[in-house]
Amino acid sequence: MIARPLHRAEVLLVLALALLGSAPALAASGDASHNPDAEESEDSSAGPALAVVSVTATRIPEPVDRIPATISVVSGEELRARDARDMASALSLVSGVEAPAGGDAGPSSAVPSFWGLHEFDAFLLVMDDVPWGGAFNPAITTLDLNDVQRIEVLKGSAPVMYGATSFVGVVHVLHYPAGQATDTADIALGSYGSARGSAAFALPQWGSYQQSFAAQGESLGFADDREKVSDGRLLYRGALNLGPGRLSIDANLSIVRDVPPSPVIREGTALTTLTPINANFNPADAALNEDKYQLAIGYSLPTAWGTWDTLASLSRSHVDDVRAFLHADLSGAADTQNQNRTILDDYFDTHLASRFGSATLLLGADLLYGYGEQTTLNGNSAYTVPLDGSVVPPPTSALPVNEIGYVSDKRLFAGQYAQVDWKPAARWDVTAGVRLNETYESKFSSDQTLPPFTPTQEYDAQQASRDVVRPTGTLGVSYQLWRAGVNEAVLYADYRDAYKPSALDFGPDYQPAVLLPETAKSYEVGLKGAAADGRLSFQAELFRLDFNNLVVPTDSGFLTNAAASQLRGAELETRWSVTDDLVLAANYAWHDAHFTQYQFFDADANAYVEVAGKQLPLSPRHLASAGVLYTPQHGLNSTLVATYVGRRFLDEENTAPAGGYTRLDATLGYSFGHYALSLEGTNLTDRRPPVSASEFGSESFYLLNARALWVRLAYHAR
């Protein structure tokens, strides 16, 4: 049964309840129940590079300048100044990273790329120390970017702490801890009848029990008048001193109601002009709806051997996925899918951090369990519509079903790990880690086809499994070349060996095999530091990643491990705090992401073509971004962010080029007392280039969202 859309009245009701629930916190925001460390935490996340600590690479707080890896930290203060509410905006000033909104997972999602690899499932998304969708695919649609303290971005894999789930990057979203919050509420109205609002407050403290909550809701329209987003998210955090340790609890609720757009088909060397840019060929009941519930409980215990931390997370998602994709021949025929799936994604980690002189030893074990079950009702060539988009296709309930698919997939990723961080001298830092991975996957798939899709009724079912036990590891070293006060220059290098079980995309096609894991080895060398009394921070790196066992389609449509690629390049990221209120950012990246092995099947030529040496699709050689952030606490404020994405190719044979483009986002506001009023705009140039490829619609591409304008009123309790 398809869940109904969340209407705007319901979104506003959620916001009203959130604001009413925050009233006690508003009244108590100035008393002793409000944790005074909140402002200190906010300031530290926005301060000079040397004041910033990271936990993504080491699990324990470590100054970014000492970690032998490329890490970018985006403060929550900056996110709110830029009103960055999706991954594209949040990561726009991180060098070499793209994260355009949309893609096959719907308009609430995104397709981030790191080091030139533009794949939805190649990076790891973490929220408050929990892999968010880690057992299957990054759960971007339910990611909560409200009340964020900071976002940490680790370039490359994390083969020790998170094992077999990341390759080219880790994005770790950290919210304010229990008892702390931004203490803000806002509401905004925007283009295409859009509305949104959010609230985040520290709640009154009960004895030693600290708590906070955050809520947000939105109803978004787009240039395609059928495309919609109606989402709501709630986060509650609590913490209590229990015995000699500290108990924490997180509860998340996400409700997503998306109506997806239609991707645009490539015709020859360019996107077709036969379909209007905002035409939608999905069935009348098209929807990408998800309800997700997550509960996490943690306990931190100081012991004679160090701090022992344990975290357990349980989550359950229910997804209804109803869509259609036009045939690549542009005949107007479309294949429909009506999918119903349930996903369980559970995580457990326990580790002990011990200090021995100048070294810190981390010993731990974790377990990631995933179970996914899906039934799909397909209508192959279910309807034919005019290419001008003038006809809304019928709902799938009124269409014949000629293929019934089923898949259940159980995944168990276990690991035991050890990592040492050794500082043999004041200028040196050596990090070495190893992990023993045990990955087990069991998959049952069935496919039943009916006439006229096949001449007779046919049925096939297969059970497949794969168990892999494999070590992974990392070795890194940093050396402080120079230091004068808070100014410094640190040289670092690292090596990482990682692997990742092949992803399950929950698509409509019958894919019974459990494929080999994809593997990667990466090498990185960089220089980072600060100058001008710590006001100028910089980070530059050279990298290379060799990627093997890539999963690619064959001429029959089945997937196989039959390709390899190499990612290499250079990235530069700089920040200059001209004053406490004025920050300038400038970044540049050069990427060379190419195939080193791949016999690509060209359907037009009906032959295999060797594309070794060709650039990966949608991977630009040049990326750049720049920002001006003027954010005083009172009076006029403004931000401007420009991102440039260079020339790319839309195909594996590099015959279909797509020109570069620039995106501009800006805010202009005025703060007075506890209130702020602002005008905001995204994609002000209104360019609509292809930014993501569909894995379900052949030769189909999603476009950059059209320009959107907003007016926002915000309240700050502090």
Look at the structure and give the CATH class.
Answer: Mainly Beta
CATH superfamily: TonB-dependent receptor, beta-barrel domain
Mean pLDDT: 91
Instruction: Describe the main β-sheet briefly.
Output: 22 strands, antiparallel, barrel
N- to C-terminal separation?
A: 46 Å
Number of helices, counting only DSSP H or I runs of 4 residues or more: 5
Supply the key terms.
718 residues, 57% strand, globular, 6% helix, 36 strands, Maltoporin, Chain A, 5-stranded mixed β-sheet
Q: Would you write up a description of this structure?
A:
It is built from 5 helices and 36 strands. With 718 residues, the chain is mainly β. It has a single domain (8-716), classed as Maltoporin, Chain A. The model is unreliable at 1-50 (pLDDT under 50).
Short description:
This protein has 718 residues and is mainly beta. The radius of gyration is 25 Å and the shape is globular.
Lay out the secondary structure:
Blueprint: H1 8-21, H2 23-28, H3 37-46, E1 53-54, E2 62-63, E3 71-75, H4 76-81, H5 87-90, E4 124-127, E5 130-131, E6 148-155, E7 169-175, E8 184-190, E9 194-206, E10 209-221, E11 228-242, E12 245-259, E13 264-267, E14 270-271, E15 287-303, E16 306-326, E17 333-356, E18 359-384, E19 403-422, E20 428-449, E21 458-484, E22 487-500, E23 518-531, E24 536-553, E25 559-577, E26 582-602, E27 607-610, E28 622-630, E29 635-645, E30 648-649, E31 657-658, E32 661-672, E33 675-682, E34 690-693, E35 700-703, E36 708-716
Parallel strand pairs: 4-7
Antiparallel strand pairs: 1-2, 3-6, 4-5, 6-7, 8-9, 8-36, 9-10, 10-11, 11-12, 12-15, 13-14, 13-35, 15-16, 16-17, 17-18, 18-19, 19-20, 20-21, 21-22, 22-23, 23-24, 24-25, 25-26, 26-27, 26-28, 28-29, 29-32, 30-31, 32-33, 33-36, 34-35
